Each structure stands twice: as structure tokens, then as C-alpha cells.
Amino acid sequence: MTSVTIPDPADRAVATIRTLAMDAVQAADSGHPGTPVALAPVAYTLWQEFLRFDPQAPIWPNRDRFVLSAGHASTLLYSLLHLTGVRSVNPEYETLGEPSVSLDDLRSFRQLDSKTPGHPEYRWTAGVEATTGPLGTGFATSVGMAMASLWQGATYNRPGYELFDYDVYAIGGDGDMMEGVAQEAASLAGHLRLANLCWVYDNNEITIEGDTELAFSDDIATKFVALGWNVTRVGDANDRRMLARAFASFKAEQNRPTLIIVDSRIAYGAPTKEGTHGAHGEPLGADEIRGAKRFYGWPEDSDFLVPEDVYEHFADGIGARGHTAREEWEAAFAAYAQEYPDLADQVERMQRRELPEDWDADIPAFEPDVKGVAGREASGKVLNAVAGRVPWLIGGAADLAPSTKTTITGPDAGSFSPQDRSGRNLHFGVREHAAGCIANGLALSKVRPFQAGFLIFSDFQRGAIRLSALMELPVVHIFTHDSIGVGEDGPTHQPVEQIVSLRAMPGLVDLRPADANEVAEAWRWLMPRRHDPVALFLSRQPLPTLDRSRYASAAGLSRGAYVLADPQSGAAPEVILIATGSEVALAVSAYETLTAEGVAARVVSMPSWEIFDRQDQPYRDSVLPPAVKARVAVEQASTLGWARYVGSEGAVIGMSTFGASAPLKELLTKFGFTPEAVVEQARAQIALHGS
Fold first, then answer.
1. How many whole angstroms separate alpha carbon 600 and alpha carbon 570?
2. 554-688 adopts what CATH topology?
């Protein structure tokens, strides 16, 4: 093996990033080498000269954030994590001694259980700030991070103490720019004048199908200027001097987010028989790699070669600079804690996702009321009770705060805006997908976020919600208008399949409370969660507030499902009525009729399938005794999935069609959501099972 013949240390470092990316993809025989090779000078310049990041403490609160929105270029990030010596972090937020990405991890790229999956994954590989894969979502998530930095700074900084002023960088390509979520987020970022946000657009004019001229001819520069961005261009991705000038332009900009358009030429393999180049989505091949290494002055037969002085080069650059910045911050925070102990306590709790003492002391209890209160109304009251004691609980709706009752009130609440960075009410506009991604970015920055909308519009957000679950982020996704109870708005606004589709998402907790006190218990359950995203389903229409002296305590919500009412005689139940949300009152009404007839009935309120399924088998059997086969489930949604609780012969009163436009009472009669229909099905179940 000949030696590396690159005299300049920076050039050697860039070539090392490139060759590691090539070798990793080749070893996996899978992946995307082109973008990492092309963007190595861009990433090098950013990390080595500008990024405020300490590899020895990768979760230091005031570090700059780097998001690789073009997640398919993951070897670019993994190579940087390895070369800069980023340390691992455990689930308790403790920095460990071993590297986040070792050379062996690079050799295991895309292999089972490796720290280098095909697309970067938060919580799996230290130094990865966000899970990216679906294009555009990394860009959108970075907007939430930038908002968090400004909010944290406005809320916690004090004269002489700049605790939070971190910048956020994201790299994406043509695919990211084509996705609607990136455009939604860019529009909001420009409106909010997020001057601490920098996107790098890799303008390489290539996608999976071939040249971008097939489907994309947007004038990105003009578009972003119109969106209120500072736009600069670097004509050659290899020109580190111009790249440094572009990043310096971002640092100097005080009023607008910055887009750096970088013209690059992706590392191509040999032309395929179709006439396009294969290297965007497949290995370069051994011959191409040897040729590339020869061109870069690298030993052709080397494999995962890292010259020792490259490690030293990064240690002297980003390592030393980040270490100094982090130590200065820690010293400042120690003094800050002496001068502002209460604020320092909040900062520490926020960073560890812990709640203040007595955070739930103001959650109201709701008196029995036949007329009751809508789920959204009750949630609004509880939200404000919690927000009064958890200052870093912030959020908003996609233009629906008045309808979803998600406005934080109080003299200091305010709206987040260019004029008020401390406002706790966020206004996402009619940008549902971006709202979900921005909420993820806020959570990644350790703010506790919620985002809200109508349940029917959760379809716009599925990608973002899925990433909440994949990253285990405690985002509260509030969805109101949760059934055909929307009434006259008709089937376009009446969710039918949305609840079951969200229940199918691993790790997402479904919560559909039955009355105001279950709403209170839902918030009491979800707020302490550190790794559970929640979909909170709330009614538009009033729900009777149950008399808990007659029926079981709403605290049973914490087990996912609980026995709300049992036979008054103390006998074993002949039939079990299971319901969620607004249909629990319906089941209770049917229970009262059956009880008057001498039928031994049980009502089970099941606000959460996910939480109930986490309980041990004895508890689940105590709620749904296997011996009781006669069961009826009631929910104004798709019946899909209910067989797991009622059995193959159980009855489910639900929706098998879309809804209709009509007053609520007419809809309930048309689709069978009446006490009489529940009683009829209960009788049929008892007859079927011989009780």
C-alpha cells in the first residue's frame, strides 16, 4: 500500500471522509455514495470551521445542531462522527467513553444492530440530532429546533448569561426541495425570521429516476427570496473558501434564515444501459473506487484508511473549539445557578425531561353534569392548569387553536413571533405536516411541545407522527373533532379510519377519554412520559361528566382500560360493554337499561389500547374475563381491530362506511349509535353465548 500523497491537512481530511463513505457503501453492497462524496468539502467546512459542537459532550445544551435532511447520505454523517471522535450517550443522558461510531461500525454500515443504519436514527447513534429518511422532514424538523433556540434564549437568558443562542444547520437536496413539507416549513421560517437557521441545498440535479429535468425546474433562489430568506450561492462544492464565505454570510445575517445553494456534481458510477448513472443509489464498484482514490491521491488498495493526523486535525479544530465553548458555558451556567436558582432548576429539568414538583396541583376535578363538557373544552382547561406550572410546555395548532382549545392563556403567554420570541403559543398556519415535524424539532431541543388539529387532518401528518414514535419523543398530538359527531360538516371532515390507523403505529399512545375527568387523567398520565408520543383524541360535542361516586374513578385511565360499572348484585357479568370516548356514555345508558331488566352487565371504559396492552395478563383478564364471551364494543370509528377485545363472535358497533352530512342526532340514529342498539346487541350476545 502506497502512502497518502495529499500535503494539505484539510484536503486529507476531506479525502478521508470521501473514501470512508465509498468503502462503507461498498462493504454493505448497498447505499448512496454519491452525495457523501460530493458534499464532503461542505460538511468538512461547516464542522471544522463553524459548528459549535463538542464531540466529547454531544448533548451539551447550547451546541449547534446539524441535521442531515438528505438521510440517504448517512455515511457523510457517520464519517464525521467517527473522525471527530463523538462519544456515546446512554438513555440517562450520560456521556460514555466509547466512540459513537467506530471504524468497525462503518464497516458494518446497514447491517443488523449496527450503529450505522441506512438512514440516521436519533437515540440510536449519538451525534445524530434527528431521525431522517422521508425527504423534507429533516428540513422541517430543523425549523422546530431553531424556534426552540430562540424561545429558550428569550425565556432563560439574562444579562451576562447567553445560555441559549445555538444555530441550526440542515443539508438536503433536490428531493427535499420537492417535498411539500419542506416548502411549508420554509414558508413559516421566513415569516418568523429565524435568523439562526441555515439550510444547505445540494443542487446536484439528480434524483433516483435520473436528471431533475424530468420533473423539477423550480427557481429555488427566487422562491426562497420571496419566502423571506437570505440566499447565497456557491458555484463549486469543492471551493472551501467560498463555502466559508457563505457560512460567514449566514452568521452575519440578523433578520432572515439563510439558504446556501451549493452546486455539486454527484459521484457517478458507470452509465447504465438506460443511460443514467447508478451511483446515487448503489455502490460505485471496486474499479470506480480505485479510480476515485487514485484521483484523490489515496492508496488504491486501501480499505477504511484513516491517517492518524486526520484525527488530530479534527481534534485541533472542532474538538478544541467545541471543548472551550462548552467549558465556558458550564462555568457560566454554574454562576447563573447561583444568581437565578429557580431558572437554573427549570433548565436542568427541561434538559432531562423531568417535571417540576407539584406540576399537576392545579388540574381541576369536574363535578357530575348530565349536559357535561366537550372533550376539547375540558382539555383546554387542563392544558392551562399544567402550563401554569410547566413553563416549557409550549405549542399551537395548524390554524385551529380556537377550535381545538389549545391557546395558553395568561399575561405572559403571548404568541411566538419575530417581535416576541418568548411567546408560548405557536401559530403554524395551515401547514399540518410541517406542524408535526416542527413539534418533533422542539422536542428534540428538550422543550415540551404539543401540536393540534382536527383528527381528520392527521392524515397530513402521518410521516411526522411516525417519526415522533420512531424517535420516542414525548410530543402531544392533540386531535379534536374525533368522530362523526362533527355532524353537518359531512364525511370530508368526519374521521372514520384515522383512530385505528394511528393505533397501528408502534409506540404511539392512543388516548380517547370518555369525559372531562378522564381528560384530566389523560394529561396526568401523559405529562411525566419521557419517551412516549401521544395522540389525544377529543370530542367537539359535550360529553356527560359521569358521577364518579356511582361509577369507578377516572384514575383507571392510567391502566388503559378499567371497569367503570359492574352488576349491582355483585354477580359475575353476563355481558361486557366496551367503549371509548363519547361512546362510553352510550354504553352506560345501555348498562342502566340492562340492569333494570335484571341483566348482569359490565361497562369497560377503554381510553387507550396501547396502555391496556402494556398491562400484565392478570390485570387484563380482570377487566375482560376470558370466561365472559358475550361482548359488545362501541366506537364511532372503523371496527377494524376490535376483534382482539370482543373475540371472533363479539359484536362491534362502529363505522363500515364514511359518514354523512346531517345534524348529530340524525347521524347517531342512522349509524346505530343509540342506547337501544347497544341493548339489542347485548341481548343478542347473551343469547349467542348461552347465558
1. 9
2. Rossmann fold (3.40.50)
